[in-house]
């Protein structure tokens, strides 16, 4: 079994910061999906089960639990795909007596979940969810781009801060050199 060493983490499970602009776009996409399908809930998760956004009448705690369970279900289906020598399973459908759950991946990094009752037609949900995943993929690309930009800005800012701190600790300006070494004052 591989150990979790630094740099060996799954890149799809690393932290991405979803800004307010992107969050608003996600909300709008989920609202549209809910309106068009008549779904009970719709949500967007990362692959670790973290709820990025949801629409519906559920409480936050319920959504967080459901998100974690759905991410676990997705992970187990990916392992089944591997065992069957499939590239992956992009879509999961779970059917209960009252509700159905449709889950589709967004670029392999996020999960779009639609919970709907038996009055909604599965085919319609699939078509509309596919359109939503395409919109969400565009938003994900924007999130990734903005995160990379933040990291590069933070990296250069951190390098400058580190250099400035080292200069403050170990560097000496002309005044401190003269005060620290009185013989240089006498020689001038």
Secondary-structure arrangement, i.e. CATH architecture of the largest domain: 2-Layer Sandwich
What is the total tally of β strands?
Answer: 5
Give the class from helix and strand content and strand pairing.
alpha+beta
Question: Can you tell me the overall shape?
Answer: elongated
Tell me the span between the first and last alpha carbons: 68 Å
Overall helicity: 55-70%
Name the helix and strand elements from N-terminus to C-terminus, one letter apiece.
HEEHEEEHHH
Structural domain count: 2
Spatial strand arrangement across the major sheet: 2-1-5-4-3
Radius of gyration from the alpha-carbon trace, in angstroms: 25 Å
Major sheet details? 5 strands, antiparallel
Beta fraction: 15-25%
Number of helices: 5
CATH topology of the largest domain: Beta-Lactamase
Spans of at least 5 consecutive residues with low confidence: 1-9
Supply the CATH class of the largest domain.
Alpha Beta
CATH superfamily of the largest domain: Dynein light chain 2a, cytoplasmic
Question: What is the residue-averaged pLDDT?
Answer: 82
């Amino acid at each position: 079994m591989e150990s979790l060493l630094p740099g060996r983490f799954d890149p799809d499970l690393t932290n991405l910061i979803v800004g307010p602009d992107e969050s608003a776009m996600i909300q709008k996409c989920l609202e549209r999906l809910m309106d068009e399908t008549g779904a009970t809930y719709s949500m967007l998760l990362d692959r670790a089960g973290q709820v990025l956004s949801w629409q519906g009448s559920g409480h936050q705690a319920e959504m967080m639990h459901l998100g974690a369970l759905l991410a676990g279900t997705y992970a187990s289906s990916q392992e089944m795909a591997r065992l069957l020598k499939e590239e992956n399973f992009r879509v999961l459908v779970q059917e209960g007596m009252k509700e159905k759950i449709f889950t589709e991946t967004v670029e392999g990094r996020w999960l779009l979940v639609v919970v709907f009752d038996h009055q909604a037609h599965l085919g319609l949900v699939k078509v509309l969810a596919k359109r939503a995943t395409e919109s969400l993929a565009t938003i994900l690309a924007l999130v990734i781009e903005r995160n990379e930009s933040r990291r590069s800005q933070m990296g250069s800012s951190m390098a400058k801060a580190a250099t400035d701190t080292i200069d403050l600790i170990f560097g000496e300006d002309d005044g401190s050199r003269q005060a620290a070494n009185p013989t240089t004052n006498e020689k001038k």
